[in-house]
Amino acid sequence: MFPKGFLWGGAISGSQAEGGFDSGGKGLSMADLLPYGDRRFKSMLNGTDALKNYNSENFYYPSHTGINFYEHYETDIKLLANLGLKAFRFSITWSRIYPIGTESSPNKDGLKFYDRVIDCCLENNIEPLVTIDHFDTPVGLVKKYGAWRDRKMIGAYLNLCQTLFERYKNKVKYWITFNEMNMILNLPFVGGGLCYDKKDNLTQLKYQAAHYQLVASAAATKMAHQVNPKMQIGCMLAAGEVYPYSCNPKDILMALQKNREQYFFSDVQVRGYYPNYIKQYLVRNNISLNITLEDKKILKNTVDFVSLSYYSTHCVSSDKEVSKNKTKGNVFSSVENPYIKSSEWGWQIDPIGLRITLNNLYDRYQKPLFIVENGLGAIDVLDENERIHDDYRIDYLSKHIDAMSEAIDDGVELMGYCIWGCIDIVSASTGEMKKRYGLIYVDKDDEGNGSLNRIKKDSFYWYKKVIQKNGIN
Ligand code: BG6
């Protein structure tokens, strides 16, 4: 049973939706350097490659135009209101507010855009859920500080937070400090704006950058509570339980260790200190982090809720032969689980895994959970009447909603659920448009052509009913 006031929602991010990459005084963002095509993944790993090869005349950069939410936000939010959304998650594009990142005052035009987006949500009775940084470091800060490799990033980030919290203190209640902070371990440029070369000890660099983000997140939490104690601040994990491939104790141990890679981030943000297992991991790997006494004090400012994205579970095996059989398409290296099916992009589909993940997170923290991303990336085809019959998406979503309901019945406290890319947006990993998550179709292709018309899919009408009935049946 879903509780009264459950936040049925949808989610997007700035760089995947807005477009208008140089409008209204916006500066270049890290996401603007990720091209469509073969070079994209390499650029996502390492900003050195992204910066060196940036050439907007010869390559297509999907974030530059997105789905032009920048100009369509009003009609898009009305469509979402028609869908019945109770919450809409979007992110602030940092370089719209601080184009380089080091300015002493914010860019007024950038703020005006978010004023309108937020007001539009409120006028339509939609609760805004704002991600402060969704894979979106300004290029100015990448060039000046090397992004999150430098402690100075904490100040730059808090400057942004101060501007946002003061301006929207009576309008926005729910905030997420960083999108999927644990992603920095897999995609250092995406997660932390990191550029590096052979001289760098990459593991050291990633954990140091992660530490600065953890301190920034805790300091932002403190600041938000000072500005308005009613504001609710969440951390966010790219979640999904790691299963042992077999009951071989070696597999169980591997899974335990792999799960800690994600739990490290939420453990610190929920409990307020580094757990012993990570301290030992750092020692064993000769990693010595710059952690001050003041940092330790700041980390004590813990979050109000734990948000998560959930697409899949993962599997690990100590058997070399078994380990060769990896899933396709997912940035998390994972052994293919033979018991579950995969999406067209090779992401494994595991609704029961959502129930398991929610239970484990809740057992660990006893904090309210919020699923802020879940959905199916699939190819949608228009029929002769320009309709999209996406029963595969309805099937995926309804099974995950059932799993959520079961988790609630297990005792998990769940605040809400946002369908990822509720309106079609650019895929973060591939830069494609054809990998669609939306309940609303956007007419645009992978090369950037199309009318940008919006069309309601069958899943739109289905989700509308789900919301109306508060998830019953
Ligand atoms: C999450 C990100 O990891 O996965 C989103 O927070 C992203 O930005 C989503 O879009 C789905 O991934 P993709 O690559 O299919 O867009």
From TrEMBL:
Tell me the active site: E373
DNA damage among the record's keywords? no
- Record's keyword terms, sorted: Glycosidase, Hydrolase
Q: Which family does it belong to?
A: Belongs to the glycosyl hydrolase 1 family.
Domain of life according to the entry: Bacteria
Tell me which EC number(s) this protein carries.
Answer: 3.2.1.86
Keyword Cell cycle among UniProt keywords: no
Q: Name one GO cellular component term.
A: cytosol
- What sort of enzyme, by top EC class, is this? hydrolase
Task: Give the UniProt record's GO annotations in the biological process aspect.
Answer: carbohydrate catabolic process
Classification via PROSITE patterns: GLYCOSYL_HYDROL_F1_1
Give the residues annotated as coiled coil.
Answer: none
Q: Say which species the protein is native to.
A: Companilactobacillus bobalius
User: What NCBIfam families does the entry give?
Assistant: PRK09593.1, PRK09852.1
Q: Which InterPro entries match?
A: GH, Glyco_hydro_1, Glyco_hydro_1_AS
Q: Which GO terms describe its molecular function?
A: 6-phospho-beta-glucosidase activity
Q: What is this protein called?
A: 6-phospho-beta-glucosidase
